[in-house]
Structures are given as C-alpha cells and as structure tokens.
Amino acid sequence: MIPGGPMRYSRAGDALTKGFESCYFHAYPDPASPLARALLAAGLWQATLRGEPIPVRFEGMAGDPWTVGYGATGPVIGPGTIWTQQQADADLAAREAHCAAAVNAMVDVALTQDEFDALVDFAYNAGVGALQHSTLLRLLNAKQFRAAAEQFQLWDKAGGHVVAGLLRRRMAEAQEFAGAGA
C-alpha cells in the first residue's frame, strides 16, 4: 500500500493512456493475428478499423482476441461487437480505476504523481498481473527507482518481436515515471 494513502490517476495519466489507446467503436481482430495480417496484406486494415465488414474470403481466419473501445478485450467482445462513445468511456474509466487500485495495493513506497501515472498506464496496457510479477515492481519496492525505470523498455514485445508502438509507449511511460512527461 502506498504510504500516505491511495493515489488517483490524473488527467495527465488519462491523456497518456488515451494517447496510445485509440478508440474504435467496431471490434477489430488482434493486430498479430492471422486475420489481421491477411487484412493488412490485402490493404483492408484501415477499412476494418473504420468498421467496414470483413470480406467473406477471410471467414474462418483466427482474429482473437478481438478489441473494441480503448483496447478492451474479453469473452463478450468478438466480430460484430459495436460500442458507443459512452460505453468506451465507461469501460476506460472502470479499467483505469481498477489499475489505479492495483498499483495502490502493490506499491510499498511513496510515489510522485508522474510515477504513479506511468505505473497505471503500464498496468492498463501490459496487465495488472504483468506488473504484479515484474522486476519493475520488485525494484521499485526496493526503492531502486532508477533501475525500476529502466525496466519499462523491456516490455516492448508482442509474440516475441519488438513492436514499435509498444516501444514508444514504454519510452513514454519511462519518461513520465522520471517526471519528464509533464
């Protein structure tokens, strides 16, 4: 538990998350899935993100996990899922609050607002479990702030490959953590 009581995710933190989690109202396949790779190769990825129907010739290709809103996935999200802006905003707020509560519960040292925001964004994107079992958290709770900050960049892979967008996000989180994100 963070000394001094629980912290809240700030507007700057919310902007960090929204800056990396574009909002889509029509569910789309995981970018690393066979379906997404085929849509990209066919020049149909942007059309898919706009909610245009996926052509029949791609039927049966794996696309899990499907995503909607600000990066929401789960068993009730699949092809054909459509959300409103209100649904996307409510889901974002609920998941940010969940991640903030998790960071408050896991961190044993006093944090600045920037450090807290970086950790919440990391948990939002990589998952609460990833943070909970990370060297980043272990170093942070050992008051090794600099070494902890260096851990962000190690979480830049999907499917074993460096993903430019994840690398940019981890760099932004590390910068926020260092207090340079304001």
Write the layout of secondary structure elements.
Blueprint: H1 11-20, E1 24-28, H2 34-41, H3 45-49, E2 67-69, H4 85-106, H5 113-126, H6 128-132, H7 135-141, H8 145-151, E3 157-158, E4 161-162, H9 164-177
Antiparallel strand pairs: 1-2, 3-4
Helix pairs in contact: 1-5, 4-5, 5-9, 7-8
Structural class: mainly alpha
Largest sheet, order of strands side by side?
1-2
Helix content class: 40-55%
CATH fold topology of the largest domain:
Lysozyme
| H/E element order | HEHHEHHHHHEEH
> Describe the biggest sheet?
2 strands, antiparallel
Molecular structure report:
This protein is mainly alpha-helical and 182 residues long. It folds into two domains: 24-69, no CATH class; 89-177, Lysozyme. 51% of the residues lie in helices and 7% in strands. It contains nine helices and four strands. It has helices at 11-20, 34-41, 45-49, 85-106, 113-126, 128-132, 135-141, 145-151, 164-177, and strands at 24-28, 67-69, 157-158, 161-162. β3 and β4 form a beta hairpin. α1 (11-20) runs parallel beside α5, α4 crosses α5 (113-126) and α7 (135-141) packs antiparallel against α8 (145-151). The longest helix is centred in the middle third of the chain and has 22 residues, at 85-106. It is elongated and about 55 Å long. The mean pLDDT is 95.
